[in-house]
Design goal:
heterodimer; A: 110 residues; mainly beta; six-stranded mixed β-sheet; 9 strands; B: 119 residues; four-stranded antiparallel β-sheet; globular
Chain lengths: 110, 119
């Protein structure tokens, strides 16, 4: 149950696109199409942004998109806005009803 | 609307016990599996435990196995986490979260309750 690997920080200017990677193993990210992404503001609960690699929950703008290749999943945020500045976490189902999260990425909007 | 409200956090000495509760509303609690997830101060999220909707099966992270017990009372719409033999590294905010019915995703989360293990 080792944590998934995410960059500690990424940044971009308003209007630009940024991509956050999430690297796991063939036992979690690579094995299942059950990768989700969460946005978390300081002191707040995580909010689901993407599930099942690339699906949007109701109410999440399509500026947020997800993908996966092999053992690495990615979250891309296009048309960056100031309100996107937050921490982002990936999560993968790891089999046998266990889950694993990434270490989190701090997104700074310059 | 879906609402999850955790309670029961506080300060406890190493080796002590604490029971957390998560009150659910806005959905049919007995139809959804549930999770506990924690976050140490300034750190990332860590999955802790999972329980099926009928309470028949429970699963734990290795870091808490044998010390924590997840349970639920469906008529009371409440999820619990009994935490025994607490360690300083168990300090953090504990969230309950709902498993999305059609996927292996955690969709709705509560606001969390803070547990501090310190002498």
């Amino acid at each position: 149950q080792s944590a998934l690997t995410q960059p500690r920080s990424v940044s971009g200017s308003p209007g630009q696109s940024v991509t956050i990677s999430c690297t796991g193993t063939s036992s979690d990210v690579g094995a299942y199409n059950y990768v989700s992404w969460y946005q978390q503001y300081p002191g707040k609960a995580p909010k689901l942004m993407i599930y099942d690699v690339s699906k949007w929950p109701s109410g999440v703008p399509d500026r947020f998109s997800g993908s996966k290749s092999g053992n690495t999943a990615s979250l891309t945020i296009s048309g960056l806005q100031a309100e996107d500045e937050a921490d982002y976490y990936c999560c993968s189902y790891a089999g046998s009803y266990t889950w694993v999260f990434g270490g989190g990425t701090k997104l700074t909007v310059l | 609307q879906v609402q999850l409200v955790e309670s029961g956090g506080g300060v406890v000495q190493p080796g002590g016990s604490l029971r957390l509760s998560c009150a659910a509303s806005g959905f049919t609690f007995s139809s959804f599996a549930m999770h506990w997830v924690r976050q140490a101060p300034g750190k990332g999220l860590e999955w802790v435990a999972f329980m099926w909707s009928d309470g028949s099966n429970k699963y734990y992270a290795d870091s808490v196995k044998g010390r924590f017990t997840i349970s639920r009372d469906n008529p009371k719409n409440t999820l619990y986490l009994q935490m025994n033999t607490l360690r300083t590294e168990d300090t953090g905010v504990y969230y309950c979260a709902r498993k999305f019915g059609g996927s292996y995703t955690l969709d709705y989360w509560g606001q969390g309750t803070l547990v501090t293990v310190s002498s």
